[in-house]
């Protein structure tokens, strides 16, 4: 068990249900799997947890071609070969351990202080990677075969795993995690998020920007709906535009639609609606 309690941060709005599952996962020392559409704050939550608990954040960005060993450690055979050929290194080429570099999971295990480990977009990896990784995280140890050495975690990291649901996760994987789906914020929560990012914003501008934003998200045939980060960047642009009048939003005119929509077809649709 742990005495660490996450209460949110000044720049991350945390609802009660999410707060509970984060702290239950920390107390039970179980990975927390977060799902939700892009832009709902899954990755940002890991940053907030690290900040709120005063821990370093280690981020493992999962790639489709990634092998589990890459996340654990890398054996730099090329550097060792060069050292042995040219003989101008201070390293002893007979000591293979000098050529072992810890990967992101390995760093979290070998650190003298407890870390927050974010495993981002796990759904990009294949099923074997997912299940083998959770075996390592369950056991809190792994072997470095080149030097016949077992690495055992000094501290169990706080583990947050994100998925954009592009690919189903295996039942064994799901069974080893606590789970939370971060729904896209409703308008009330989004106004709180906007207030956090823009504490001095004109209230009418904030209200009308949020209202226009949700209207745009409801447009038919939109392939990639704008997310929270697009709204934040859009409001920044509106505040920087000296000739902008918030009444334009009420009239259906949408300045800077390219900040909100990143697909050509979506942008054309938004421009057609806003005239």
Structural class: alpha/beta
Given this structure, which CATH class of the largest domain is correct? Alpha Beta
- CATH topology tier name of the largest domain: Rossmann fold
Strand order of the largest sheet: 2-5-8-1-9
The CATH superfamily label of the largest domain reads: P-loop containing nucleotide triphosphate hydrolases
List the total number of helices: 13
Residue-averaged pLDDT, rounded?
90
Which tags fit this structure?
five-stranded parallel beta sheet, two-stranded antiparallel ribbon, Rossmann fold, alpha/beta, 2 domains, 275 residues, 13 helices
Structure notes:
This protein is of the alpha/beta class and 275 residues long. It has 2 domains: 16-181, Rossmann fold, CATH 3.40.50.300; 187-274. It is built from 13 helices and 9 strands. The protein has helices at residues 16-28, 42-52, 68-72, 77-86, 104-110, 127-139, 171-175, 187-197, 203-217, 228-240, 247-250, 257-260, 264-274, and strands at residues 32-35, 57-61, 73-75, 100-102, 116-120, 141-144, 149-152, 158-163, 178-181. Strands 2-5-8-1-9 form a 5-stranded parallel sheet, sandwiched between helices. Helix 8 (187-197) crosses helix 9. The longest helix is centred in the C-terminal third of the chain and has 15 residues, at 203-217. The radius of gyration is 23 Å and the shape is elongated. The termini are far apart. The mean pLDDT is 90.
């Amino acid at each position: 068990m742990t005495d660490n309690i996450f209460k949110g941060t000044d720049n991350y709005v945390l609802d009660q249900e999410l707060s509970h599952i984060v702290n239950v996962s920390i107390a039970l020392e179980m990975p927390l799997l977060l799902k939700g559409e892009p832009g709902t704050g899954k990755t940002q939550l890991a940053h907030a947890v690290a900040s709120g608990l005063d821990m370093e954040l280690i981020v493992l960005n999962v790639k489709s071609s990634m092998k589990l060993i890459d996340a654990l450690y890398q054996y730099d055979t090329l550097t060792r070969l060069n050292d042995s050929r040219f003989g101008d290194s201070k390293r002893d080429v007979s000591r293979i351990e000098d050529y072992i570099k810890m990967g992101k999971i390995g760093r979290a295990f070998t650190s003298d202080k407890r870390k927050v480990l974010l495993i981002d977009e796990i759904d990009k990896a294949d099923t074997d990677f997912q299940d083998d990784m959770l075996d390592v995280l369950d056991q809190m140890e792994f072997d470095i075969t080149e030097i016949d050495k077992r690495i055992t975690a000094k501290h169990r990291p706080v583990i947050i795993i994100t998925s954009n649901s592009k690919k189903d996760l295996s039942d064994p994987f799901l069974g080893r995690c606590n789970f939370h789906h971060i729904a896209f914020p409703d308008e009330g929560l989004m106004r709180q998020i906007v207030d956090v990012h823009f504490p001095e914003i004109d209230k009418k501008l904030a209200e009308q920007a949020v209202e226009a934003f949700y209207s745009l998200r409801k447009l038919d045939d939109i392939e990639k709906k704008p997310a929270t980060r697009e709204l934040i960047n859009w409001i920044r642009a509106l505040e920087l535009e000296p000739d902008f009048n918030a009444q334009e939003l009420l009239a259906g005119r949408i300045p800077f639609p390219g900040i909100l929509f990143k697909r050509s077809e979506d942008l054309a649709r938004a421009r057609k609606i806003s005239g």
